[in-house]
Amino acid sequence: MNDLYTDEPEEELGPSKSQKKRDMHAVQQLCDELAQLNADVWSRLELSDTLIESLEIAARIKSSGARNRQLRHAAKILVVDEDLRESVNAYFEARKNQARNEQNRHKLVEQWRDRLIDEDDALSQLFVSFPATDRQELSTLVRNARKEKQLSKTPAQQRKLFKYLRDYVIV
After folding, report:
1. Is 139's pLDDT higher than 60?
2. pLDDT in tens, 77-93
3. Cβ-based neighbours of 138, under 8 Å, separated by 6 or more
4. Of residues 134, 122, 126, the one with CA closest to residue 168
5. What is the CA radius of gyration of the chain?
6. Residue 25 to residue 127: CA distance in whole angstroms
7. Is 97:38 a contact under the CB 8 Å cutoff?
8. For the chain, percent of residues with pLDDT exceeding 90
9. CA 116 to CA 124: how far, in whole Å?
10. For residue 54, which of 46, 74, 79, 105 is within the disulfide window of CB 3.0 to 4.6 Å?
11. Helix 135-150 to helix 156-164 angle, to the nearest 10 degrees?
12. Which one-letter DSSP state was computed for residue 37?
C-alpha cells in the first residue's frame, strides 16, 4: 500500500525547469551589463577570449532579437565557468556599493550645508567633527550663504559652500 506519510527521505529532484530559466535569465542579464562595459574592465576581470568576442559582437548589434541571441550565447559561455561568474558578480556588487557610498556622502554633505546655514552652533560642531578644516574659509562661505538665503537670492553661495564641503571637508 502507498503510504503518503513514510519516514523515508524524499529524492532530490534538483532545480525545476522554471528555476533553471530564471538562473539562465540572470546570467544573460549579467552578460548584458558586461556588454555595456569597455574592454579595459573585461581584461581586468580576466574574461576568456571567447566570452570577450561574444560580448564585443553583442555590443555592436543594434537589433533587439539578434542582441538577445548573442547575449544567450555569451551567457552559456559564462555559465560554464562558475569562478568567473562569481568574480563578475563581485565586480558589479562593488560598483553598487561604491555608488551607494557616494550617495550617502552626497546626502551627508547636503545635511552639513543645510545645518551650517540654518543653525548657529553647527559651525563649531563641524570643527569638532572635522578638525583639519580651514576655519576662516569655511566661516566666510557660511556667512555669505546665510546672507544670500536671508535676501532670497539665487543659491550661488550655497553651491560654493556645498562644493567646498564636498571637496575639502567631508572627503
Report:
1. yes
2. 888 887 888 888 889 99
3. 123, 126, 164, 169
4. 134
5. 27
6. 51
7. no
8. 49
9. 9
10. 74
11. 150
12. S
Measured at the CA of 152, the angle between CA 146 and CA 108, to 5 degrees, comes to 50
Report the C-alpha gap between 163 and 85 in whole angstroms. Answer: 39
Q: Is 145 exposed, middle or buried (0-12, 13-18, 19+ CB in 10 A)?
A: buried
Question: CA angle 63-66-71, nearest 5°?
Answer: 115
Contact between 144 and 162 (Cβ < 8 Å):
no
Cα–chain center distance at 163:
22
Cell of 133: 578644516
Q: What single-letter amino acid sits at 129?
A: S
Overall pTM > 0.90: no
Cα–Cα dist 17/15, whole Å: 7
